[in-house]
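Input sequence (433 aa), recorded before submission:
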Amino acid sequence: MAERTTGTQLRQKGVSKKACALLWDESFAWGLMAYQALTEAGLPFDLLRSEEIRGGALSRYRMLFVPGGWASQKLTALGDRGQEEIKRFVEEGGSYLGICGGAGMATEGGIGLLPIRRKPTTERVPSFSGPVRLSLADHRIWQKVDTPIFFAWWPSQFQTVDQRTRALACYEEVLPDAFSSDISVADGRSVGWPALEARYGILLDPARLHGEPAVLEGHFGRGDVFLSLIHFDTPGDPNGAAVLRNLWDYLASGWSSESPVRKVRSRRLPLPELSPEVHEVIDGIETAASDLIATGSRNFLWYWRNHLLLQWRRGVRGLEYGTLAVMMEEIGKRLGGTDGGQAHAASLDLLRLREDTSEIRDQLIPFVEKAKLLVIRERFYMNTATLSPVECDDEEINRLRLELFGSAMSHGGHFKRLIDIVDRLLFNLIRDA
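Predicted structure, token format:
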């Protein structure tokens, strides 16, 4: 039998391609997180949308990186054609890096790049988040990592790993300042997890993660596949940045972390003067998003874990509200000229900008007003009964939840219509920069 040639070996033969494409669609705050982390690490990448992948754009790249988000919605955005393009890309020697939702997208329940499944929600610790210590297998991606502490943000869990898949890291220890649902690990250990699990009705003890695989490596055709439940793309994490650089060296060979990408200084024209009407709209939507966050904060429903992610009480939605706030803040920075990545003046379509911001305002204002009413009702409901994020005896809470988010935990309803418009504008502003 002829010896198998891997995607890494093919790229080492000098195939001239760009390093990495980052799939933006259906990532939202996770896409912004990945963008910031890769930029901090000095790594080369381009943002791509599903329609570009369907059109064959992956042929220009060595690696595809799919960040977090709902895997099911990513698959829908790609469609059958986009999924087949990714499979062909990897089969012919391209590399695939999936983190969290991007990892789930590549399992048997998704595109099927690796022969693994994800555990059902009822069999896993579904709401874990924060710092973890890993036990590491010998591999070059761990170079320059002295203490293997990284971040996991509400990961799924891998169910099966066979001989065709290698675990590069397993969960070793969850640190005390991590959270399981809305309980700090330190406090959960003091009270005792069995009693808390009985009260919450879900698995909470993070010790259940011990020894389970967190990072996997395998192959699909001639391509390399890396799936991680660990967010190496957490901005401000030096260990994560080191692993990302190592992954780029390994999966997109030709770029070296020893010779960082030379930053080319382009001549940027100053942003054109936006009309007072546009400034007023931008200020209004930023204020509305901030007011929603303030409403939850003063009702003791959430607080910021870092500059991108909220920690929220069980029973309410926090990820969606935080996502909306951070994406609106990023749009404000880019249009306000306070961010070094502001859009190029030459590429800024002022008419389209006015239309997009007006559409966001028209969707956002009624959403925020109803969302504030919802979180206040949820807060007072918690005073007398346990609140589930999926069901409630209060008919008005159920009605507002259905209208704002749809019937599934993978957000729909008014929120999905709104965030898609916000996402489109932010994508254009980032890529134009």
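Checked by second reader. The mean pLDDT is 90.
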